[in-house]
Amino acid sequence: MKHDAVIVGGGFAGLAAATYLARARRSVCVIDTGQPRNRFAEASHGFLGQDGSDPRRILETARAQLAAYPSVGMLDDEAVQAHADGDGFRVLLAGGAALAASKLILAFGLRDILPEIPGLRERWGKSVLHCPYCHGFEFSDRALGVLYRTPMSVHQALLIAEWGPTTLYLNGADLDPLDAETLAQRGVAVEPGAVTRLEGDGTALSSIVFEDDRRRPVEALYIAPQSCLSSPLAEQLRVAIEDSPFGPLIGTDENKMTSVPGVYAAGDIARAPHSVSWAVADGVTAGTSTHRALVFG
What we know:
- Helix 1 packs parallel to helix 2 and helix 1 runs parallel beside helix 7.
- The strands form 5 sheets. Strands 1, 2, 3, 4, 5, 6 and 19 form a 7-stranded mixed sheet that branches. A 5-stranded parallel sheet has the order 8-15-9-10-11, covered by helices on one side. A 3-stranded antiparallel sheet has the order 12-13-14, with no helix packed on it.
- The chain is elongated.
- Strand 2, helix 2 and strand 3 form a beta-alpha-beta unit.
- The chain is built from 7 helices and 19 strands.
- It is α/β, with parallel strands linked by helices.
């Protein structure tokens, strides 16, 4: 059987795309590994009507609603290969199955590469965060920090200061004098010392420890981690991939189509910045664009 569309990734972007294709009565198959990028967070904020909801529950509800459409299939598997095949595409799964489709939507998401600092990884998504719009309100007026990774971290610290008293932890990096002046004007403190570990009770964060054993209190630490594509399919299909300060992004047009006709990309892999709301919106665009392409060519 040849599907109208195969969607690689069953997160917010992929399920949104599938829903719109299903409502257009097109045959669609969603392939999902069950490893969404925000699986470390206990609550998703800012998504209209679902503020504070567990993102896993939102996805479970979306999957259940999508399964009610007769033209939809969902596979708990991993797409490991994809290539053009005649007038469509062929996708090989880790489980050994192969799928054929007229159109292909990539929505497999990103993988974050976190700094190797003891105590950081286990707090990711809880008290070590990436987005103040997603998690900042809950830490309002507490001791906030930004871990320096690139010069863009200065901009991040200037933004985080909107939510409370903020310190930029340079972790041994050098700071441009003009940036130091701007941070001072904004009221952002700067700590130059090298960070050795994070401490706290469970996933909560209470202090940041330096190589000279000094401690500073901090309850939320923001970082902008380097990210990478969580699947090799984009490279295999030879779609255009752009560099960004935070990692690779798949280039798309206003319809979310990549540089390869018939291949679309949606969600975090094809946009910056990132949020659940933007991922869903991108999925809707990719799904409706795919449907129009099926209709009009």
